[in-house]
Design brief:
This protein is mostly helical. The protein has helices spanning 37-47, 62-90, 93-108, 111-117, 142-165, 172-200; strands spanning 9-10, 26-27, 123-124, 130-131.
C-alpha cells in the first residue's frame, strides 16, 4: 500500500545476462527534500547494468520564454519612454553633490563605527541625567554621531551659501545680511564643535565663545 507520493521504483531484469536472482524493486527516496532531474537520473544510472543509459531531455519552457521576453520588452519600452525624464536627473550636478555630501557626512561622523562596535544610543552621566558625548576617542554614542553629522552638515551648507548663494544676490543690503547670518551660523556651529572636541579630548586648550 502506498503511503506517500510520488513513488519511483526500479525493477532489475529477471532474464538475460544481467538478470538478478532477487527481483525486489529498488525504491527511490523522495523524503530527503527537493529532487532535481539530474539527481534522479544519477540514481537510475547507478543501478542500471552496463550498457546504454537513458539521457535527460528537457523540453523548451515556453512559459519562461514568454515571461522573459515580455519583461525585457516592457523594460526597454519603459526605459525608452522615461529616458528623457531620467537623463536630466542623472546629469544634475546638485543632486550628485548632495549625495556625495550626505555620504561624506555619514561616514566622517562615525556611522560605521556604531555598526561595528554596537555602541549605545545614549548613556547616563551618573547624576541622574543623560550623557550625549562619550569621553575619549575610542568611545562614542549613537546620538553623538547624529549631532556631529548635523554640525558638519550645517558648516558645509553655510560654506556653500557664502561661496555660491550670497555672491549672486543683487540687493547689496540683503547680500550683507545674508553674509552676516551665514557667517554667524558658521561661527556658532564651529564654537559648539570645538566644545564637543574638548569633551572628547580633555587636554585640548582652545575654545571659541560662546560655547
Amino acid at each position: 500500500m502506498l503511503q506517500t507520493a510520488p513513488v519511483l521504483m526500479l525493477f532489475p531484469p529477471t532474464t538475460g545476462p544481467h538478470a538478478k536472482p532477487d527481483a525486489q524493486a529498488i525504491r527511490y527516496d523522495f523524503t530527503t527534500g527537493s529532487q532535481s532531474a539530474e539527481q534522479v537520473h544519477d540514481w537510475i544510472v547507478r543501478h542500471l547494468p552496463a550498457g546504454p543509459k537513458p539521457r535527460i531531455y528537457r523540453p523548451l519552457n515556453y512559459m519562461r520564454l514568454v515571461t522573459v521576453t515580455t519583461i525585457v520588452l516592457g523594460a526597454v519600452s519603459l526605459f525608452s519612454v522615461a529616458w528623457p525624464y531620467i537623463i536630466p536627473i542623472i546629469q544634475n550636478r546638485n543632486l550628485w553633490a548632495a549625495i556625495s555630501l550626505i555620504t561624506i557626512l555619514l561616514f566622517t561622523s562615525g556611522h560605521m563605527f556604531n555598526h561595528i562596535r554596537k555602541v549605545p544610543y545614549v548613556a547616563g552621566d551618573g547624576k541622574g541625567g543623560i550623557s550625549y558625548f562619550a569621553g575619549g576617542f575610542s568611545n562614542q554614542f549613537g546620538l553623538e554621531t547624529q549631532i556631529v553629522a548635523a554640525m558638519y552638515g550645517t558648516l558645509s551648507f553655510a560654506t556653500i551659501a557664502l561661496a555660491l548663494k550670497v555672491p549672486r544676490m543683487v540687493d547689496p543690503k540683503k547680500q550683507q545680511v545674508a553674509a552676516f547670518v551665514w557667517g554667524g551660523v558658521m561661527f556658532g556651529t564651529y564654537s559648539f564643535l570645538l566644545s564637543v572636541f574638548r569633551v572628547k579630548n580633555g587636554g585640548y586648550p582652545f575654545h571659541l565663545p560662546p560655547f
